[in-house]
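Form P-L/3: holo structure prediction, ligand 3-(4-hydroxy-phenyl)pyruvic acid.
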Amino acid sequence: MIRRLTIFGVGLIGGSLSLALRAAGTCQEVVGCSRSESHLREAKDLGVIDRYTLDPVEAVKGADMVVLAVPLGAMRGVCEAIRGHLEPDASLTDVGSAKASVVEAVREGFGEMPLGFVPGHPIAGTEKSGVSAAFPTLFHERRVILTPLETTDLGALARVRTMWEEAGAVVETMSVEHHDEVLAATSHLPHLLAFGLVDSLARMGEREEIFRYAAGGFRDFTRIASSDPVMWRDVCLANQEAILKVMGRYQEDLGMITRAIEAGDGDSLLEIFQRAKGARDRFCP
Ligand SMILES: NC(=O)C1=CN([C@@H]2O[C@H](COP(=O)(O)OP(=O)(O)OC[C@H]3O[C@@H](n4cnc5c(N)ncnc54)[C@H](O)[C@@H]3O)[C@@H](O)[C@H]2O)C=CC1
Ligand SMILES: O=C(O)C(=O)Cc1ccc(O)cc1
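OUTPUT (holo model):
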C-alpha cells in the first residue's frame, strides 16, 4: 500500500498510473505537481489526483513514492528542485522512454545517486498526450522495464515493482544500456520512420492530396506520427548513440531492398518479405 504517491507531470502516463492505482485501491493519496497549473487543475477536475501543488518541495513532503512522469528534458530540473527534500524512506522512479539520460539527470540533479531511485519505463502508451488521454487500463498486461543500478536499494526496487504490478503490468528488469539499445530498435526507430515518412509524403504531395488516397496500411504504419513532437525530439537527443546505430543498420537493409528492385531481383524481394511476414506473424499471431 502506498501512503502518499507524488507524481511530477500528470499527463498521459502519470495520469494513467494514478488512475490504475486508485482503481486497484492500493494508494491512499495522490499528489500532482507540475509547472502548469491548468494541467493540474484539469487532472483534479477529472478525478485523476486528490490534490496538487506547484511547489516541488511541498509535493514530496510525506510522500513514500515519487514518480517522475515529465518529458525527458525536464527530469533534471525536477530533481534539482526536490534535492535534499525527499523523505528518507521514499522510493523514487521515473517513466522516461530512454534510461541512461534519466540516470545522468537524476545523478546531476541530486548531486549524487539517491539510493531509493529505480529507473523505469512502461512499454505502453498512445500517440495522445495530456491527462485527458489518460485511462486506468493503459498498463494492463503490458511490460514495464525496470533498470536498477548497483546503488539501488532492494526495498525500493521491490516497492516500485509492486506498484507497477498493482497497475496491471508485467515487470521485467534489465541493464540501462540493454534497455536503450532494445528500445532504440523497437520503439524509437519506428517512431522516427513514421514521422519521416509522413513528412516526406506531405512535402511531396500537392496540398496533401496524396493522403486522400491512403489506405488502411498507411493509417496503421503512421498512427505514431501523431505523437508529441517535443517528446520525440527529447528521445532522439537522449538516446542518440543507440538510435544512430540502429538507423545505420536499417538504412543498409533498406538499401538492399532498393538494389533488389533496381535489379528486378524478385527472388531476393520474396525472401525478405517472407522472412518479415514470418517474424511478424510469430510475434503478433
Ligand atoms: N507518451 C507515451 O506513449 C509514453 C511516454 N513515456 C514517457 O513518459 C513521460 C511523460 O510522457 P507523457 O505522459 O506522454 O507526456 P504528457 O505531455 O502527456 O505529460 C507530461 C506532463 O509533464 C508536465 N511537465 C512538462 N514539463 C514539466 C516540467 N518542467 N516540470 C514539471 N512538469 C512538467 C506537463 O504539464 C504534463 O502534464 C516522458 O518522459 C515519456 O518519455 C513513456 C512511455 C510511453
Ligand atoms: O503509441 C504507441 O503505440 C507507442 O509505442 C507508445 C509509446 C511511446 C513511447 C514509449 O516509450 C513507449 C510507448
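COMMENT: The CA atoms of residues 31 and 155 lie 22 Å apart.
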